[in-house]
Amino acid sequence: MAAATGERAPAFTSEELEKLVDGVLPQYALLYGPPDQQVSAYQKIDIWRAIAKDVRTLGVHNRRGTHCRKRWEDIRRGSRKTAEALLGMASQRRRGATCQLTPLMSRILAVAYPDLDGRMRTSQQTQGAEYRHILLS
């Protein structure tokens, strides 16, 4: 955690990111779903605190709910941008190009952006040998 002197908090480790994603995905509808499925702002804060508590069990850094929420939003945004870039490359049919999503990004896309995930899988199936997407699972 950042000191009072204005130092930045350390980057999330891969284990912390896995734990964060494992905590958010089951709660995704409550946090970001349609309005009829979402919970109140206070309940969302409690959910983020519980997720942060799970991340802290790794004993790496003392993460707060706010840090976890901001990091999740960064990961989610980055996953979407990567998927859109890969789809753009697929539409150009570049020969010999191989596109990769990390297993973590694939899991996030499946829950947070099912429309993009479906288009990625469809693109992967229709491109054949000329162009292929590798979705690591």
From TrEMBL:
Top-level taxon of origin: Eukaryota
Record domain Myb/SANT-like DNA-binding: where: 8-82
A Pfam family matched in the record: Myb_DNA-bind_5
InterPro entries tied to this protein: Myb_DNA-bind_5
Coiled coil: none
Gene Ontology, cellular component aspect: nucleus
Protein name in UniProt: Myb/SANT-like DNA-binding domain-containing protein
Naturally occurring in which organism (per UniProt): Pleurodeles waltl
